[in-house]
Amino acid sequence: MKKPIKIFSLGVALIALMASCDKNRNHPGYSYFPDMENSQAYETYAESPVWEDGKTNQLPPEGTVPREMIPFDFEKTDVNRTWAGQELENPYHGEAEIVERGKELYGIYCINCHGDNGDGKGFLYTSGKYPYPPATLLSDKIKDNPDGEIFHVITVGFGMMGSHAAQVIPDDRWKIISYIRQELHQ
């Protein structure tokens, strides 16, 4: 009983092996699903019978957000900064690994202007390359600001500080704020 099964399996394997081989090395082999391999393509701005409006190029569905882009509805105004302070809440609350990651990120993005201790005496200012002193993160004003306002400032900028939205992803902004709150404001 086992011998016919082995012979049959060997025969199927031999047929599959021979079907996959070809004497012409420039021929890629056989296509078992040609409709999948050679689908009908349309030019971007050509007419298409697939869609009701007859256009190939379609708008994305309403409410679609591009990958890695999180909408930020607050503008660079004092009113919106205050509003962000009321609406936005830090998802992290002093967790040790979050604060440690925030410290690393602070060292990458913030230390050059705000300094090791957050006192505004970073290398760019102390070297004389930047004439205006950056804000000290140790002031009572910053300590009293809600986390949402600090997030807003990092995102869109404030005063002489430019936007860091392109450099620091939103999740990392919250980690930096957690570090500032936990370590610098003690």
Shape: elongated
Number of helices: 9
Low-confidence stretches: none
For the secondary structure, the number of strands is 0
Highest CATH level, the class of the domain at 92-184: Mainly Alpha
Architecture of the domain at 92-184, CATH level 2? Orthogonal Bundle
Beta-sheet strand percentage?
A: under 5%
What does the average pLDDT come to? Answer: 85
Give the CATH H-level superfamily of the domain at 92-184: Cytochrome c-like domain
Helix content: 40-55%
Computed Rg: 30 Å
Instruction: Give me the strand/helix succession.
Output: HHHHHHHHH
Structural class: mainly alpha
Ends distance: 81 Å
| Largest sheet descriptor | none
Topology readout:
Elements: H1 2-20, H2 34-37, H3 78-87, H4 96-109, H5 111-114, H6 123-126, H7 140-144, H8 147-156, H9 170-184
Helix pairs in contact: 3-8, 4-9, 8-9
Task: Explain briefly what this protein structure is.
The chain has 186 residues and is mainly alpha-helical.
Q: Describe it for me?
A:
There is one protein chain. By secondary structure, the protein is an all-alpha fold. The chain has a domain of 93 residues: Orthogonal Bundle (Cytochrome Bc1 Complex, Chain D, domain 2), CATH 1.10.760.10. The chain is 46% helix and 0% strand. The protein contains nine helices and no strands. Helix 3 crosses helix 8 and helix 4 crosses helix 9. The protein starts with a helix and ends with a helix. The mean pLDDT is 85. This is C-type cytochrome. Pfam families: Cytochrome_CBB3. InterPro entries: Cyt_c-like_dom (IPR009056), Cyt_c-like_dom_sf (IPR036909). Keywords: Heme, Iron, Metal-binding.
